[in-house]
Amino acid sequence: MKRLISIVGPVLSDRPGASKRTRPTLFVIALALVIAATPLYAQRGAGRGGPPPAAREAAALDLTGHWVSVVVEDWKWRMVTPKKGVYDSLPLNAEARKVADSWDPAKDEAAGEQCRAYGAANIMRLPGRLRISWEDANTLRIDTDAGTQTRLLRFGPAAEAVRLASTSLSPGKPDTTSGEPSWQGHSVAQWEYAAGGRGAARTGNLKVVTTNLRPGYVRKNGAPYSAKAVVTEYYDLNTMPNGDQWMTVTTKVEDPVYFTRSYLTTTDFKKLRDPAGWNPSPCSAR
C-alpha cells in the first residue's frame, strides 16, 4: 500500500460526510500513520541531540553482493535490440516518436553517444550483472558489467540539500546544482522502514530519486528520455523457501518532454554466491 501511495500519489482526503466527532479520529489515525512512516533513526534520535547513524549502519536491508538479472518482463525488448519503430508499452508522445524514428546507431557511435541506452533510466533493464558495495558510510555503489557503468546512491543531509537546492523537485526541471549532467545523474537515497515492535529486526526498502541526467534512451532502439527526466526507484528483497535471495527494482520514469504519462517497470535480480561470470563490457549502440 505504501508503495502504491508513493507512485500513484496522495490519496488521503477528508471525507465529505464526516461528522465533527469523526474528524478528530481521522486526524489521529493520519498522524499515527505519519509517525509510523518516519525513518527509524529519526524516531530514535528525537530528544537525544545526537546525529543520525550513517546509512550503512542504519540499513533497512543488505543489498551488497553480486547479482544477475533474471529477465521475466519484456523479454523480446530487453534481450535483443528491437527494430526501429517498436515502441510497445512505452508512453511516448508524438515528438518522442519523431525523435525515435530518426535513430541511427552509426551516428551515435560517431558522436561518442553509444551509452545513450545505459543511463539511469534504463541501465537496470539491460541484461547483465551488478556488483553492489558501500563506497563510504553514506554512499551505496552499484557497478554494472553491461556498459561498465557506476551508480552512486547518496544518503544523508548533504545529498538531500543538493536535491532541495535544485529545481529537480518539480517534474520537468533538471538538477542544476550537482555538476554536469551525466548518464547516471545525481541519485538521492533513503531507507524506508517497515513498522515493527521495539527490539524487532530492522526491515524495509530503499528509495532512490535520480535527476541531472544526460538525454538517453529508455529502450535501445532510440526511444528517448530527456534531460528533464526524473527516475524514482524502489529496491526490495525477498528470500525464497530454498534460501535464494531476489531483488526487485520498481522504477518510475517521468519525462514531461517525451512521455504522456509515467513509465513503470519492475526488474528482477538473483543474488549470486560469488563474482564468477562478472564480465564488464563497453556500451554498444546496436
Main features:
single chain, 286 residues, alpha+beta, 7 helices
Descriptive notes:
The chain is of the alpha+beta class and 286 residues long. The chain is built from seven helices and eleven strands. A hairpin with a 4-residue loop joins strand 3 and strand 4.
Structural class: alpha+beta
Strand order of the largest sheet: 1-2-3-4-5-6-9-10-11
CA radius of gyration is 20 Å
Mean pLDDT: 83
| SSE run | HHHEHHHEEEHEEEEEEE
**Low-confidence region ranges:** 8-47, 167-176
Number of helices: 7
Could you say which overall geometry the principal axes of the C-alpha atoms support? globular
Strand percentage lies at 25-35%
Separation of termini?
39 Å
Number of strands: 11
Helix proportion of residues, in percent?
10-25%
Major sheet attributes: 9 strands, mixed, barrel
What is the topological layout?
Layout: H1 2-8, H2 22-37, H3 40-45, E1 65-70, H4 75-78, H5 94-101, H6 105-110, E2 129-136, E3 139-144, E4 149-154, H7 156-165, E5 186-193, E6 204-211, E7 216-219, E8 223-225, E9 230-239, E10 245-254, E11 263-272
Parallel strand pairs: 4-5
Antiparallel strand pairs: 1-2, 1-11, 2-3, 3-4, 5-6, 6-9, 7-8, 9-10, 10-11
Briefly, what is this?
This protein has 286 residues and is an alpha+beta fold. The protein has helices spanning 2-8, 22-37, 40-45, 75-78, 94-101, 105-110, 156-165; strands spanning 65-70, 129-136, 139-144, 149-154, 186-193, 204-211, 216-219, 223-225, 230-239, 245-254, 263-272.
